[in-house]
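Appendix B.2, paired examples.
Example (i):
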Amino acid sequence: MNYKIKFYTIKTNKRIINYIPKKNFILDILEKNKINIEFQCRKGYCGSCRIILISGKIYYPNNVVILASKLSRKEIFPCCCIGINNIILKI
């Protein structure tokens, strides 16, 4: 079953990407679809890739160390999380 990432940006307003759940990190999906966001470490340490999760569910596999103090309640690190259903992001 495929799910959709719907996201909003200042430049594009709205765009939809299909993805297979539990397969790729959100950052990898965005990159494959030529959606560039800032990132550095790809492990959740630096915090430069943080974006807003408007709705949907994600999880952080493999006991990824997340700098929780750097995240507000709705922020996520797309470099190290995976979508598990339809998600809406604000980039």
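Example (ii):
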Amino acid sequence: MSDSLDARTRDEIDDQVAEAFDAYLADRLAEPGPLRTSLASKRSAGTVLGTIGLGTLATALAPTGGSVVCWIWGAIAVIDLAWLLTARCR
């Protein structure tokens, strides 16, 4: 009897945690983020997609050293963050 009670209690707790997590995610998705703000201000995502495309090409053509690839993607991250954050300021 206690095993079935434990199983039911665990199921109820799991359901409550899942509902709370779903509500949390729904609230987070409703908040405007930098990408949503930039798209709402009619700025295209072409800059971000272009840098990712160029980064992929540069990674494929880069020498075998890992430091070069890290520098490439670090620069891309800085460019993309700057682009997204400037949309937030406008």
